[in-house]
Design a protein that fits this description.
The complex is a heterodimer of chains A (434) and B (323). Chain A has helices at residues 2-23, 51-66, 86-98, 112-117, 130-133, 162-167, 183-196, 212-223, 243-257, 284-290, 333-342, 345-355, 373-384, 394-407, 413-432, and strands at 38-44, 72-78, 104-108, 140-142, 145-150, 152-153, 156-161, 199-202, 275-281, 302-305, 320-324, 358-359. With 434 residues, chain A is an alpha/beta fold. In chain A, the strands form 3 sheets. Chain A has a 6-stranded mixed sheet. By secondary structure, chain B is mainly α. In chain B, 29% of the residues are buried. In chain B, helix 2 (36-67) packs across helix 14 and helix 4 packs parallel to helix 8 (189-217). Chain B folds into 2 domains: 2-67, no CATH class; 89-319, MetI-like (MetI-like fold), CATH 1.10.3720. The model of chain B has no long low-confidence stretch (mean pLDDT 88). Classes of the chains: A alpha/beta (434), B mainly alpha (323). At the A-B interface, helix 1, helix 3, helix 14 and helix 15 of A face helix 1, helix 2 and helix 13 of B.
Chain lengths: 434, 323
Amino acid sequence: MKKLLATLVSLLLVATMLLGVVACTPGGPDETDPEGNTIVKIMFHVDKSSTEGQAYQKRISAFNAAYKDKQIKAQAIFKARSAGASGYETELQNNQLEGTLADIITFDAPNTAAYASSGLLYDISSLISAEDQAKFYSLNKYNGKLYGLPIQESSAGFFYNKKIFRDAGIDVGGFTAENPWNLQQFRDVCARLKQFGVTAVDMRLDATKDETAPYLLYPFIYATGGSFVSEDGLTATGYYNSAETAQGFQFIKDLITEGYTSYSIGSTDFFTGKVGMYLSSGWTIPDLDNKYREYFASRDDWGLLPYPKGTVAASATGSWSYAITNNHHKDKTAALELLKWMTSAESSQAITNATGMIPARRDAVGNYAVGSPEYTLMKQLELSGKERPVTIAYPTFSTTFNQVIYGLGNGDVNTLLNSATNTLQDAIDKIKDR
Amino acid sequence: MTTTSLIILGLFLLAFVGFVVYDIVTAKKRKEVYRVKSTATAYLMLLPAVILAFLFILLPILYSLGYAFTDYYLLLPDDIGFVFLDNFAEIFQEISAKGMLYNAIKNTFTFVIGVVPLQIGMALLLALFVNRNNVGSKIFKVCFFAPVVISLSVTSFLWEQILAPGEGGLLNSLLGMFGVAPHDWLRDPNTAMPCIIVLSAWQGCGYQMLIFLSGLSNIRKDLYEAAALDGANWWHRFWNVTWVGLRSTFVYVLITVFIGACRIMTQPMLMTGYMSHTVTLSYYMYNTGYTERLVGESSAVALLMTIFIGGVTLLQRRLFREK
């Protein structure tokens, strides 16, 4: 009896496991639900319970209510990113591998080239009119084709402690997004802050484990006339290690050498009044408004300065975007309806209200007070926003950029750039050959 | 891919059934007392574990072995081409050019050389200390084991705060009390890996301490009494009784710590990022396979690493074989 029982249990276990394996086979989402609605799946990179996640969910619910008669139903999938964005990336790649890609995905703008060239994204060039395209500050283009539309926009700048600046007798009131300061003026302000006895600026040199440092620091390289890759994104040699690019990195190195910034600035040093300026994006605004009230009681105590201008003006831009995927659904009509809904002025406003970022569409931008931090970011985006390099090997670019920043303290700029260029070129060549 | 997996699983199950039939037939030929019913039951009991081992150990190894000879790019899963030994040529080229892979090998080697003796030494010392049944030895046991149950991510973050640069870092502020200037422990190539070695040994030694403790409990007390009667001092008792009694335990600990050390990734990933002075082989593989999406090349490195670890493990077993 015992043996019979053991045999049955064993057989049951084996059957369960085989069923589990079979259940993992790709089936893909159903085209329609029992009520005859066409199902469109959209995958987000945030947690459902987060403020941003809730905002997405509300827009999806609103879409379902509005498209009830047209029998289109959107289903949101939330896969919170972890360890930078790599957790979400892995999920996307696994879905592609299994053939279970959602109809619409969110993705970080620098991945446009890699995703588009591998056929993961659907070409929407002919589906979005030129008039509608013009409403966006930036577009996700690769090889002249449109593959995605941004959810929201981001820009960065130098948050500064007005009290320290007042006490040090530094007047930066004239530096606006329309009339940015130049690199020399930036350096002069740093010198005066150092003279005053504070660390001049937190350039976020310690943020080299993820995308933070590349995102915040790449405009300095463009400002000195440098670049990273050719226009088609396939050549790094001669661009990443050009004299102009070296000049941009040298500027950052000089800030370290002259003692204006360092790798050892604590993450809260600016917020506790120990540092004069702090390079960051719009996401710091809610922190300064709501936390650290002891040091920044109101907006009279802090301000935002634009990126300094070199031979050209350049500022950080680019955030997450939506794209229709090349999944098993051949008819993209329903997906296109959802994409248009999610990128409408109303959705853009709703999402940015939750995130504190800048709306992706010009017609969704609120009436920011002239000179306010939000106005500076928005105006800067409009006037000098320049996207990160578009290349199929963007992850390698990001890694090498971090390595160059990490090595600036002790290393020679040209040596670091030559090594970075070789690595990036090698990666581009390998992927290009695929 | 799932279809391929199912086909391989089917073939594996066929081979398994074939083995069972062969076992039964040859047993009958050998005229052994063999009850088909009992044997079948035994194999069926074994089957779930065999399938799990196949799915989660053997199958990934087989895939990795296959991918090592392809140009598999993660974003093009339907377009995998056979490139024969190109990936291996690429690997040797990168090593000879002293690129990131060269650094990864060098750093992994440094880590293994540093952490294996340190972690085992610490575990043995702690085990000997706790084994003395002093007052509070149970509390010590819990304290020493505590880091093992904390996730590596948490311990890495904790140590990052301890080793933070500037005066804000806990270690720097402690040293500052003695007039030592602040140091950037994790950025300095001379101190980064030693710091990672120390934290890893601290985090892992509690587990090996328990294994040594179980080994110590198997050594007969009368051996110590006999040694004491013979006038053996502390060192002689340790060397001739304890160490001899712990030999097989030591081999097990040595092999497991060595394999674990070869696979180090979390600590450098979270504490320094992908930098030349702390990158390790596992981190290199992860970065190449997932971040750069070059699965073929990453699999080739994985294959070489598996062969190396397997080879060294066999060597260790041979060297420490009981005579």
